[in-house]
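Design a sequence for this backbone.
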């Protein structure tokens, strides 16, 4: 009985198929399925790269920037008021800082006094011109009188000189007549010299006033410029916002003595923000100004998409324009793919709906087929 049972068990074991071939077949099917999936994924990647990827370049190395306005003092003086704080929104023309204007007012008064003095002096030139013209006329009359006296003295001498040899005229009388003639000649010469001196003085005076009005006189204009500069310096004691924006890095305090050029604060025009996207050099072959771009920010996430356009390219890579540029010509050199900043302008309406701040991270995607 036991032998019979053992025989049947051996027959059943012999008739049962071996599991090895079936396991190998299953592995082969799984490998083929994996290979097929990999081939489909590769084909999909190639298709995406050709259809979509080849028409887009993207980077997450992008940041918000703006052309900020540095507010500095344009004149000297102590700070009397500071009317803004950091993070405050301001409009162009809003008063930011007020300086004590005492010194600037005194400078203006001094310049106005100097201008008045110059105006009086130039008006004196004009009055001198009239006076010198009168002097010339008077000296010309003196010349006429001296010429007449000279004629009479010459006639007296000519009448007596021939009679001197005959004794009809004494030597003393002839000497007296000759002396009168010489005096008349000297008086005539002096009268002529006086006319020439007066004419010369008038010509010199004319150089100062001739051909220009009082307002256009060089001395008056120079004094007026000083008045205008003093008035400008007085106006500059009130520091106004140069653009619309947000006050940042306010450094000025009440009582601080400032000089021209002292930094006070920065105004950031957040409504005119743009994005500088640092693309790899191998991505830029097809990028052109005017191409459309889609951007998302880490601040709002993927559900807020900004639309912009490529404005242009930086003049150099970040490493080349760094404060301490890389010295690739020295030491051991390892090639590193460079990045070039690409500026992308943003839609103002989208910026107004979802404001951005300078320095925030962005993701940029440029449609190079656009």
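Sequence:
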């Amino acid at each position: 009985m036991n032998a019979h049972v053992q025989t049947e068990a051996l027959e059943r074991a012999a008739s049962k198929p071996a599991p090895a071939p079936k396991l190998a077949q299953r592995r082969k099917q799984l490998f083929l399925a994996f290979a097929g999936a990999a081939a489909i994924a590769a084909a999909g990647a190639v298709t995406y790269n050709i259809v979509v990827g080849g028409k887009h370049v993207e980077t997450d190395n992008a940041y918000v920037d703006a052309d900020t306005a540095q507010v500095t003092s344009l004149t000297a003086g102590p700070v009397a008021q500071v009317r803004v704080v950091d993070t405050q929104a301001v409009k162009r023309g809003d008063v930011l800082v007020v300086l004590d204007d005492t010194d600037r007012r005194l400078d203006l008064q001094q310049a106005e006094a100097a201008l008045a003095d110059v105006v009086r002096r130039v008006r004196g030139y004009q009055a001198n011109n009239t006076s010198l013209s009168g002097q010339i006329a008077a000296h010309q009359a003196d010349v006429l009188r001296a010429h007449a006296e000279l004629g009479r003295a010459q006639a007296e001498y000519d009448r007596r000189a021939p009679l001197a040899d005959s004794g009809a005229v004494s030597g003393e009388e002839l000497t007296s007549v000759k002396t009168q003639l010489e005096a008349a000649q000297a008086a005539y010469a002096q009268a002529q010299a006086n006319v020439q001196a007066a004419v010369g003085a008038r010509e010199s005076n004319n150089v100062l006033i001739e051909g220009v009005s009082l307002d256009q006189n060089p001395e008056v204009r120079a004094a007026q410029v000083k008045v205008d500069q003093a008035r400008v310096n007085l106006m500059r004691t009130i520091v106004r916002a140069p653009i619309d924006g947000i006050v940042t890095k306010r450094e000025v305090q009440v009582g601080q003595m400032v000089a021209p050029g002292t930094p006070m604060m920065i105004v950031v025009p957040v409504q005119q923000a743009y994005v500088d996207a640092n693309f790899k050099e191998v991505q830029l072959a097809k990028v052109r100004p005017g191409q459309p771009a889609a951007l998302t920010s880490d601040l709002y996430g993927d559900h807020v998409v900004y639309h912009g356009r490529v404005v242009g390219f930086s003049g150099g890579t970040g490493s080349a324009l760094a404060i301490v540029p890389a010295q690739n010509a020295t030491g051991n050199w390892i090639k590193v793919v460079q990045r070039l900043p690409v500026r992308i302008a943003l839609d103002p309406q989208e910026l107004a709906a979802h404001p951005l701040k300078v320095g925030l991270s962005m993701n940029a995607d440029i449609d190079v087929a656009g």
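The longest strand covers residues 301-313.
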